[in-house]
Amino acid sequence: MPTVSVIVPCYNEQSTIGLLLDALYAQTFPREAMEVVIADGLSTDGTREAIAAWRAQHPDLVVKVVDNPKRIIPAALNLAIAAAEGDIIVRLDAHSVPAPDYIARSVAALEAGRGDNVGGVWQIHPGGKGWIARSIAAAAAHRLGVGDARYRYASTAAAVDTVPFGAFRRSLIARIGGFDESLLTNEDYEFNTRIRESGGTVWLDPVIRSVYFARPTLRALVRQYWRYGYWKAQMLRRYPHTMRWRQALPPLFVLGLVVLGLLSPFWLLARWLLALQVSLYALVLLAAGFHAAFKQRFVPLVVGLPLAVAAMHLSWGSGLLWGLLRPPKPRRLDHE
């Protein structure tokens, strides 16, 4: 039986780290063949104390904590891998809750040769209370919001471009290298791009399931997606061929708004085109909102879903355009 190291980047996750550790303790995979390595960015909210208290109550599961002074996710992952001792690495986040069979199914897929990096689907839950948080969760699982990001909605197993939380053999790191610490986000996509370009396979299996908590507010959602767009632009500088049609639409939409907005005071046709663009977009969003509200029996989605999807599109698109214009400036980030 292979040994497994679960690696977890973490910074100020006191409210969710216990949920993750409880879920790992409940795994069907043998506890004696598993360890957890948490790379903590010197948390200040009591996360370290929460981990220590949990560990004291569960001595039969090995939980290691390593410092991540850079406080960025790819550095945390590399530090955790360096401290890990397992044959197989399973990457999770401190705000995720894997299903009880998550590790067992991930290991089974690897041993069956399905892929070099295997992962599953997110079951997206609200990150807070209220109709906005629920609307954001609905948008984060909606095709209109996430396009062909299959790990958010897939029902069939297939080879894909990327998976969010992957499981891979330690030997993969020796072959393609670790996570790129110059990318402060989008590090999973870049890692999976190198796997595919080396002739490997990234495999998504929907029986591998984990809960992902969406952002609780529109402000947090905008920050998250602007950051995703900005660092996607840095990815495209190295791998321009990885751009997908769904990823091109938001920046093109934002660019259209900017150009037509600037031309509108001087050109009647630009005013008409801008009005048409905004009107059609609003109608599509409202239709999606009504459909989601009817399907989920939750009336606030009529307004909430369009707001959340628009926040995702506009912030991601503007972040990508800004990233193409400006070189990256490293800074501390919150979790993905």
Structure summarized in a few sentences:
With 336 residues, this protein is an alpha/beta fold. It has 12 helices and 9 strands. Helix 1 (14-25) runs parallel beside helix 2 and helix 10 (245-263) crosses helix 12 (301-325).
What descriptors fit this protein?
336 residues, alpha/beta, Spore Coat Polysaccharide Biosynthesis Protein SpsA, Chain A, 2 domains, 9-stranded mixed β-sheet, 12 helices, 9 strands, disordered C terminus
- Determine the structural class based on helices, strands and strand pairing: alpha/beta
Q: Tell me, what's the shape? A: globular
CATH topology of the largest domain: Spore Coat Polysaccharide Biosynthesis Protein SpsA, Chain A
Distance between the termini: 32 Å
Order of helices and strands: EHEHEHEEHEHHEEHHEHHHH
Give the low-confidence spans.
331-336
Tally of individual helices: 12
Total strand segments: 9
